[in-house]
């Protein structure tokens, strides 16, 4: 029997404003769409956090035995600098500044995105469609919305008529905004815009003569509006009505609100049952964002080469740091937070290393099955990873007590404990144990490298450069590699 039949998940649904019991449209299958990056710059750690939240959710759903089709797009056209359909296309602007083709920008930052996600041990999505690969679908969608009376063309551009739509639908259903308030709060059109009302949004924009990213359409040579691509691609790969749609909190309005409106206007139905929004990573009290310069890049975390951190951290430590916060909570990026997570991560790994050599007994002093269900309960409660981690620390404590002969475990319970810890730590949270990863084929290279570092450390000590020798010892220690100085020289434990 698949695990999902034994576990009931509740998901906080931004649409209902409550934790709803998760019931997929087709039993055993889950369709999940997550808005991907706009590939005009390197992804920063804030972006990584949102994608990591959905990677963890994807992993858990798979673990429960669901057949998940996870679609995460690449936005490679149509995302303007400003939500009000103004400003330059972000990719075209970068291409202009760097004097390269827009598709070179797209290629460069798509590769960076994939490399970053690989470094953090993300699972690839099932389908990763691009906006430029779906222009025909977007044009067809616009035609349908115009035919249904919810969009209008002016000077080669097409806009969604929000007020018309709102007469019989609810624009604001997701973000809980009222159209009247939106009208009140948006500034008057300055006469430059072709829109009937400032709340309307672009489905198609006529391209300026110098705009390279352009495609022919019934209205003009131009490009699609940003909101449209996600409706076109989610419909194509998951159907007009699917289970989960996710993204960062900042996409709830206008992006996701517009997606609902487009689907409703084109197909007469709401597209998604569960809308999920991941919260922001902040630094110095402000949202991490490329535009303000308040950001840190993944490579800087790994190398330690950034003023906000005192040293480098492994991808798994950074991942652990992020998963120690619930995905719907704001997370403050701090050096102290990372250092604490590193300690916690090492404590967990040390306990996991002991699992293979624990003595067994005729009784267990912990109810292991009850503990295991607590781990599932944490994840079933809207993917509560901080509570899950607290249970894993409880297990780590138990393992240490067994090792110190202050607690006992039966052989059967030890097998359950081991299997459960491995499932939650490695498969679901996606953490990697540097030591065992390296043991899978790279141990010789690793040993050689550590021996080289030991030699360099000896040289440093001979030169009385104790700062360097300590640095080598401490940084290896951080990676879980302990140096032992003995009378016959220095040995090490991996
Ligand atoms: P973008 O490429 O700007 O569309 O962003 C890609 C994803 O990263 C979106 O889901 C955003 O909501 C998310 N995101 C952007 N900034 C942050 C942040 N500081 N913390 C968490 N997620 C973010
Ligand atoms: Zn989207």
Note the main attributes of this structure.
494 residues, alpha/beta, Rossmann fold, Isoleucyl-tRNA Synthetase, Domain 1, 3 domains, globular, binds adenosine monophosphate, binds zinc ion, ATP-binding, ligase, zinc ion binding, metal-binding
Describe this structure in words.
The chain has 494 residues and is α/β, with parallel strands linked by helices. It folds into three domains: 3-278, Rossmann fold (3-Layer(aba) Sandwich); 282-428, Orthogonal Bundle (Isoleucyl-tRNA Synthetase, Domain 1), CATH 1.10.730; 440-493, no CATH class. It contains 17 helices and 15 strands. The protein has helices spanning 45-63, 90-98, 102-119, 135-147, 162-168, 179-185, 226-238, 252-267, 298-303, 315-323, 335-354, 368-380, 385-403, 411-428, 434-439, 443-462, 466-478, and strands at residues 10-13, 18-21, 29-34, 67-72, 151-154, 157-160, 201-206, 222-224, 242-248, 272-278, 281-283, 286-287, 331-332, 482-486, 489-493. The strands form five sheets. Strands 4-3-9-10 form a four-stranded parallel sheet, sandwiched between helices. The longest helix has 20 residues, at 335-354. The two termini are 39 Å apart. The protein binds adenosine monophosphate (AMP) and zinc ion (ZN). Zinc ion is lined by residues 35, 230, 255. A motif ('HIGH' region) lies at residues 37-47. Zn(2+) binds at residues 35, 230, 255, 259. It is an enzyme of class 6 (ligase). One of its GO terms (molecular function) is cysteine-tRNA ligase activity.
């Amino acid at each position: 029997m698949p695990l999902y039949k034994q576990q009931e998940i509740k998901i906080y649904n931004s649409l209902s404003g409550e934790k709803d019991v998760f019931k997929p449209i087709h039993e055993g299958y889950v369709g999940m769409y997550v808005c991907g990056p706009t590939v005009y710059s390197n992804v920063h750690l804030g972006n990584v956090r949102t994608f990591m939240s959905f990677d963890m959710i994807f992993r858990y759903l798979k673990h429960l035995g669901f057949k998940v089709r996870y679609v995460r797009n690449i936005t490679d056209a149509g995302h303007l600098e400003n939500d009000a359909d103004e400003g330059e296309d972000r990719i075209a602007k970068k291409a202009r500044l760097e004097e390269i083709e827009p598709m070179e920008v797209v290629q460069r930052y798509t590769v960076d995105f994939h490399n970053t996600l690989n470094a953090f041990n993300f699972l690839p999505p099932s389908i990763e469609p691009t906006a430029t690969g779906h222009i025909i679908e977007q044009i067809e969608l616009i035609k349908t919305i115009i035919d249904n009376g919810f969009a209008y063309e002016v000077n080669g551009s097409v806009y969604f008529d929000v007020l018309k739509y709102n007469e019989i639908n609810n624009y604001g259903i997701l973000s809980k905004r009222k159209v009247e308030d939106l009208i009140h709060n948006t500034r008057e059109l300055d006469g430059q815009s072709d829109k009937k009302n400032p709340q309307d949004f672009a489905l198609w924009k006529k391209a300026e003569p110098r705009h390279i990213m352009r495609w022919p359409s019934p209205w003009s040579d131009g490009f699609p509006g940003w909101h449209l691509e996600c409706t076109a691609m989610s419909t194509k790969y998951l159907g007009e009505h699917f289970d989960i749609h996710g993204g960062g909190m900042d996409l709830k309005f206008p992006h996701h609100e517009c997606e609902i409106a487009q689907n409703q206007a084109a197909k007469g139905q709401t597209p998604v049952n569960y809308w999920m929004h991941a919260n922001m990573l902040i630094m110095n009290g402000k949202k991490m964002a490329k535009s303000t310069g308040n950001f840190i890049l993944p490579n800087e975390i790994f190398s330690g080469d950034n003023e906000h951190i005192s040293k480098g951290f492994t991808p798994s430590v950074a991942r652990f740091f992020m998963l120690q916060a619930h995905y719907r909570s704001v997370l403050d990026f701090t050096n102290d937070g990372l250092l604490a997570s590193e300690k916690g991560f090492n404590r967990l790994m040390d306990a996991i290393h002991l699992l293979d050599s624990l003595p067994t007994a005729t009784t267990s002093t912990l109810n292991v099955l009850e503990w295991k269900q607590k781990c599932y309960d944490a994840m079933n409660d809207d993917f509560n990873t901080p509570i899950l981690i607290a249970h894993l620390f409880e297990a780590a404590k138990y393992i240490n007590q067994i090792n110190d002969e202050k607690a006992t475990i039966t052989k059967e319970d030890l097998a359950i404990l081991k299997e459960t810890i491995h499932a939650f730590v490695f498969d679901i949270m996606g953490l990697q144990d540097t030591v065992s990863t390296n043991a899978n084929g790279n141990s010789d290279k690793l040993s050689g490298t550590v021996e080289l570092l030991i030699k360099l450390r000896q040289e440093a000590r001979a030169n009385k450069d104790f700062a360097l020798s300590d640095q080598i010892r401490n940084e290896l220690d951080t990676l879980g590699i302990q140096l032992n100085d003995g009378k016959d020289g220095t040995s090490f434990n991996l």
